[in-house]
Amino acid sequence: MHPRMMGWALIVVTTALFGAASLAVAQDASVLKDLTAVIALHVQACGEVVSAVRQAENDYLASCKDGNRYRVFTNAEGRVVVEKK
């Protein structure tokens, strides 16, 4: 393979990797905001969700700025449930 072709291939791969990473960060910020709103709507103390771990589809373990942790998930009936952990 020519050195020029290797260079272009490296640029393409690098761009794809960094593009996917920046999309994931933007999506994570959106998820954190959504979880903060859901917890607030369920009248639970939180303030702001600072991190979340996805356990399954529509199932998150959210950690709040004030130290509280909540499991936010959709039950079998399709309702959103917030459980304090």
Explain how this protein is built:
This protein has one helix and four strands; from the N terminus they run αββββ. It has 85 residues and is α+β, with helices and mostly antiparallel strands. The protein has one domain (3-84). The protein has a four-stranded antiparallel beta sheet with strand order 1-2-3-4, covered by helices on one side. Strand 3 and strand 4 (80-84) form a beta hairpin. The radius of gyration is 19 Å and the shape is globular. The N and C termini lie far apart (56 Å). Residues 7-26 have low confidence and may be disordered.
Strand/helix succession:
HEEEE
Q: Determine the structural class based on helices, strands and strand pairing.
A: alpha+beta
Unreliable residue runs: 7-26
Oligomer: single chain
Proportion of residues in helical segments: 40-55%
Radius of gyration: 19 Å
**Count of individual beta strands:** 4
Residue-averaged pLDDT, rounded? 77
**Total tally of structural domains:** 1
> In angstroms, what separates the terminal alpha carbons?
56 Å
Q: Which of globular, elongated, flat, extended, rod-shaped describes the shape?
A: globular
Report the major sheet. 4 strands, antiparallel
Strand order of the largest sheet: 1-2-3-4
